[in-house]
Specification:
alpha/beta, 36% helix, Rossmann fold, 335 residues, ornithine cyclodeaminase, domain 1, single chain, 24% strand, 2 domains, globular
């Protein structure tokens, strides 16, 4: 068993935005081709506590480098007020040949980067401007830091960044941190969410909202919304937009904005395409420049497994991680 801790994971992922975009894109294509296994996530909740949860995401991806295993991620929004990360995660990788566990990989950074990479891939295919110049980030936490990083990797013309958070001091700290990896960008802290939504035709939501609270009336025609946090937008906003998802069966669960829209309409006709079909060119989707497009990714565990599998391979190649001998029982003698 190989244990790959946060420091080593971070070292492998650092500066690898293009490789991660490639891996995430390839995995979406495999998923659209039916070459993955992706059971529904399991949500562990606690009596009397509606905010905190731990989620299990089992997954398998085929292709030339098959991976299988489980992501186990805890989401405790109250951690941010205590100066700690909201989410913590591990991925257990299993051999696809005999099922034995191969590695335990710290996965908080993997989770953030696959989320941001999926958003950036969607942005690159949904923006209506030939060379978009700006992005608005609503929610100033680590996920939107990565969304900014990956969006600029996928759309190098992005040079103006407007940020908004309910806590202005948090927004200002976000700008200080973002300027380290985007020193050429021009940052503005918006005074209201409406100001942020109106600032650019590319918007990313990464908040801890538990129920829909916003419409998109402040957005210009042709705006692309990366609805990463899934529960910010009112049903009316979803029904008025072109909607792209990662997987309709997964995203229409757990009271997401799309799940609520399905309950109101009784169908999923408001979903126009999946990101996998867009990447494969099989969706038949046509972007209407007069309408808002919303990308709502549930966050497929198969993306985490793919990135964790790559981190595991790189760790073996570079001699990273800690090998624990004797973790598994010795093989039984042949009969």
């Amino acid at each position: 068993m190989l244990i790959v801790g946060h420091h080593d994971v971070r070292g492998v992922l650092e500066g690898a935005e293009q490789r991660i975009l490639e891996l995430v894109g390839d995995t979406y294509r495999l998923h659209d081709e039916g070459r993955t296994a992706l059971p529904h996530s399991v949500f562990l909740r606690f009596p009397g506590n509606t905010r905190d949860r731990i989620i299990g995401l089992p997954a398998y991806a085929g292709g030339g480098r098959p991976v299988a295993g489980m992501k186990w991620i805890a989401s405790y929004p109250g951690n941010t007020a205590r100066g700690r990360e909201r989410a913590s995660a591990v991925v257990v990788l299993n051999s696809t040949e005999d099922g034995t566990p191969l590695a335990c990989v710290e996965a908080s950074r993997i989770s953030a980067k696959r989320t941001a990479a999926s958003a950036a891939l969607a942005a690159a295919r949904l923006v209506t401007e030939e060379r978009p110049t700006g992005i608005a980030l609503v929610g100033c936490g680590p996920i939107n830091q990565e969304v900014l990083r990956f969006s600029r990797a996928a759309l190098p013309s992005l040079a103006e960044v407007t940020v908004y958070d309910l806590d202005r001091a948090r927004a200002e700290l976000f700008v200080d941190e973002a300027a380290k990896h985007a020193p050429d960008a021009r940052f503005t802290v918006a005074g209201s969410v409406e100001e942020a939504l109106a600032a650019h035709r590319l918007v990313a939501f990464a908040t801890t909202a538990g129920r829909p609270h916003l419409d998109l009336s402040a957005c210009a025609a042709g705006t692309t919304v990366l609805h990463v946090s899934l529960r910010d937008l009112k049903v009316e906003a979803i029904l008025g937009a072109q909607n792209v998802v990662d997987d309709a069966d997964h995203v229409c669960r757990e009271n997401t904005s799309l799940h609520l829209a399905e309950q109101v309409t009784g169908n999923r006709d408001f979903i126009d395409a999946s990101i996998g079909a867009l990447l494969r060119g099989t969706s038949g989707f046509r972007r209407d420049p007069a309408r808002i497009a919303v990308f709502s990714p549930f966050g497929l565990g198969v993306l985490d497994l793919t990135l964790a599998g790559w981190v595991y391979e790189e760790s073996l190649r570079q001699g990273l991680g800690v090998r624990v001998d004797g973790f598994l029982p010795d093989p039984s003698p042949a009969l």
